[in-house]
Amino acid sequence: MTIVLDPAVAAVRLAVRESLAPREGSGSVVLVALPGGPDSLALAAAAAHEGPKLGLRVASATIDHGLQQGSAEVAARAVEAAREVGIADARVVRVEVGTEGGPEAAAREARYAALSRLAVGVDAAAVLLGHTLDDQAETVLLALARGAGAGSLQGMAPRRVDELGTAWIRPLLGIRREQTRAFCAASGLEAWTDPHNAETRFARVRARERVLPVLETELGPGIAEALARTAEQLREDNEAFADMIDETIEDIVEHAEAGIAVSAAALAANPAAIRNRIIRHVAQSEFGVSLTRTQTLEIARLATDWRGQGPIDLPVFEATRQGGMIVMRAR
Known about the structure:
Keywords: ATP-binding, Coiled coil, Cytoplasm, Ligase, Nucleotide-binding, tRNA processing. By secondary structure, this protein is α/β, with parallel strands linked by helices. It has two domains: 7-224, Rossmann fold, CATH 3.40.50; 257-330, Uridine Diphospho-n-acetylenolpyruvylglucosamine Reductase, domain 3. It has helices at residues 7-20, 38-50, 71-84, 103-121, 133-146, 150-153, 177-187, 203-219, 223-252, 264-269, 272-287, 293-304; strands spanning 29-33, 57-64, 89-94, 124-128, 159-161, 167-169, 253-256, 259-263, 312-313, 317-322, 325-330. The longest helix has 30 residues, at 223-252.
């Protein structure tokens, strides 16, 4: 008797299988971040099915931020769901959420820090995150609305390896949200619905519920896929730029007292895209500062439009022209 696999189940399982095939590190565990919604639940079920075939043990972690009433019960249900799909090592991690950067950013920071610690503790080769193509489209759309640069417009990376050697993987970036819901329905899985996903005080919810549907109606279908493709193309460009910038910096940058110095002539000779990226890279790597475009262009003018202007005061450091060098020095 031939068993016909539901198309959504097949698509999600394939995405997970392909994402797990390139193995980083020596760990034999994959850790699924499992809030309990349809995206993460479909991811967990697919990982539980595919992981053992690749010699991987699958674990899950549900982060309880304690920000909503009944969060402990929601977390307990997620653990139960994980065990139902075959994940024996399912646990809840309670975190304390600060206030810096707003509630969403603070919760995200606490969540990722907890997952990172747990990944090290269980010797996980990878952490799997349940972001979908729809999440990617919303991320790119919000970045466009802010006037962000290419770094933000590239959206969420499908895979990155942190300094501890753990791979952070988003297998579902090519999967639509409706497919994860169909996966859960076909598999008889009851997913949790996060009430925050309906609160229009959040920009992401407004983009999801109001803006993207209007774009689809007025401009035609396929907007989400187009935004996701834009992210992928920009990621490729940024990776190429990053390699070029690393090579260029070795030739034109030198250490200075309490800071770093960049050849003004070399900066001016480079195309604006590379010149500005070099400036932003130096500011971020040396001083931990993310420059705005206006700040970046002001520093660039020390190379391209030098008229004897004085030092440029910036957060943490100042930039000034000294002879043929632009010196960035901590204040």
